[in-house]
Amino acid sequence: MRKIRIFEHISLDGVIEHDKNYTYGGWTAAYRSPEGMAMLLGAYGGNFDLLLGRKTYDEFLGYWPNAGDFPMANAINAATKYIATHRPESLEWGPVKDLGTDIIEGIRKLKLTDGPDLVLCGSISLTAMLLDAGLADEVILIVYPVLLGPGKRLLSDGIDARELEFVSTLATPTGVLLNTYKHVGALKK
Q1: CA-CA distance, 7 to 90, in Å (whole number)?
Q2: Of 56, 40, 16, 41, nearest in space to 148 by CA
Q3: For each successive 10 residues of the chain (189 residues), what is the average pLDDT?
Q4: Each residue of 138-165: b (16+ CB within 10 Å) or e?
Q5: What is the pTM for the complete model shown?
Q6: Tally of helices (H runs) and strands (E runs) in the chain
């Protein structure tokens, strides 16, 4: 059985996405480093497949196929991409497969197959769905030492409270933390 591992880049105040016209649109760029990239790739694991929402898939399509020859790009381009989409006929960057019309059922079936872990990046709606359905195994928060104010938060107010168990933390030379948590389930009252 495969593990589902959620990776989210997040500010200290919980912002993971903002409007494209946001003044600080490149908020992660100043904190990137070769050591941080190596840590992140190590956290992904040597062999993984991707689980993506359609918007994130399209954004990745605009960058990763032409990113060049380096370990992260090579790993992402080689991964099978499983996409939550209503337009499967337009998927072009492969290897790629759609999750079907019932996304949660498609993910449940995929999780039961043999294969590498499934890494979810971005895809806010899919993140909430997986946590709410109890399908996520780990949550890895890549925490940047910034406060961004307005923007989309990791989870909306519509998701039930969840319990996570701390596993580990790593720090990059630029102060970014890679915090790994095991998803336990619904928070007990």
Answers
A1: 25
A2: 16
A3: 94 79 73 91 92 91 91 93 89 92 95 95 86 93 91 74 93 95 88
A4: bbbbbbbebebeebeebbeeeeeebebe
A5: 0.91
A6: 5, 10
